[in-house]
Amino acid sequence: MSHSVSDSNRSPAAPRPPLPGPLGRLAERAYLAALARRNQRFDAGAGVLHLPIPVISVGNLTVGGTGKTPMVQRIAQWLLDANLRPAIAMRGYRSTPDHPSDEHSEHLACFAGALPIIAQPDRAAGLRPLIASGAIDCAVLDDGFQHRQLARDLDAVLIDATQPLHAARCLPAGWLREPPSALARAHAVVLTRTSDAPPEALDALRSAVSAHAGSPPIAECAHAWDSLDSADAHRPIEWLASRRVIVACAVGNPGAFVRAAQRAGALVEATLLRRDHHAWNNADRRALERLTNNSLPVLTTMKDWVKWRRLNLGPLEHLFVRPRLTLQFSHGEDALRSRVLATARATPTPRAGVH
């Protein structure tokens, strides 16, 4: 999926679901029936592994795009600051020994060896040697809400405030992995991208969370850019003001990235968009060269940059600019941090390995 625009005031439309229309809605029924059977088994404890250390999961209901990576990094940093010894465990989507996945690469760059990062489908197998050696005393699951094979002591679920729950459909008719009723399993719900949502939409979302989760969101935050990185400089966000740019990204919510660029004052001349986790290739590089005319800056995400830089970009490399994303909490940060630290410091109750 690619998309280009010439009007700097336009944002790209939401990507089409995998199978739209009547056929998608029919397939959604089968998906939901299979999901219900799966969750019934996990609810009964079948096939659930319990580790002897506290486990904190960060996840969501949708396919990508809620800010899990910066939230996992924030939580891991809270744990490090509290003199705990966390590890991050993730699936490592499309990861290979030579080319770590995009999120794995982001975590490696963020922590620079300060904590272990496990990237493999069997997260428990990756964590066991670290537990046995005493190297870690808690674990953070990146994208763990649906990874129910591993028991968790705190389930934090992120919801993008720009994506209303009431209108969303499950795969393949939409982008929900689970229906909103799954929030009943969550211990803490966090609303993200709240600065992009109108007040009435936020109020409706808070009510929906309370109805499904049994309590209101514990915290709310906005995604903000605090600076820019490029091949040869570190720049303030103000550098984007009134500057013509090309946006190139492959993320779950590309419209939010384009809107953030526009809020920073950038004049978005065109966009080159791909599906989440897309591996940028030489055909993409050539398309980008045509759009930039070897002169316009290319605004991309850190997640995308780790894949762009694997290509032989030539002069194009010096046109790339990456914003550094931070989470700005409007409220609830202290409550969430306290919940995380209390969970990580608790002594797990002895439990059987697998039920």
Distance between the termini: 43 Å
How many domains comprise the coordinates? 2
What fraction strand?
A: 15-25%
Q: What does the radius of gyration come to?
A: 21 Å
Shape: globular
Regions with little confidence, pLDDT below 50 for 5+ residues? 1-10
Number of helices: 9
Question: Which keywords apply here?
Answer:
355 residues; alpha/beta; Rossmann fold; 2 domains
Helix/strand layout:
Elements: H1 21-43, E1 55-60, H2 68-81, E2 86-90, H3 102-111, E3 117-119, H4 123-133, E4 138-142, E5 154-160, E6 188-192, H5 199-213, E7 219-230, E8 234-235, E9 244-249, H6 254-263, E10 267-273, H7 282-292, E11 298-299, H8 302-308, E12 320-331, H9 333-345
Helix pairs in contact: 3-8
Plain-language structure description:
The protein has 355 residues and is of the alpha/beta class. It folds into two domains: 45-222 and 329-345, P-loop containing nucleotide triphosphate hydrolases (Rossmann fold); 226-324. It is 32% helix and 20% strand. It is built from nine helices and twelve strands. It has helices spanning 21-43, 68-81, 102-111, 123-133, 199-213, 254-263, 282-292, 302-308, 333-345, and strands at residues 55-60, 86-90, 117-119, 138-142, 154-160, 188-192, 219-230, 234-235, 244-249, 267-273, 298-299, 320-331. Strands 1, 2, 3, 4, 5, 6, 7, 8, 9, 10, 11 and 12 form a twelve-stranded mixed beta sheet that branches. Strand 7 (219-230) and strand 8 form a beta hairpin. Helix 3 (102-111) crosses helix 8. It is globular. Residues 1-10 have low confidence and may be disordered.
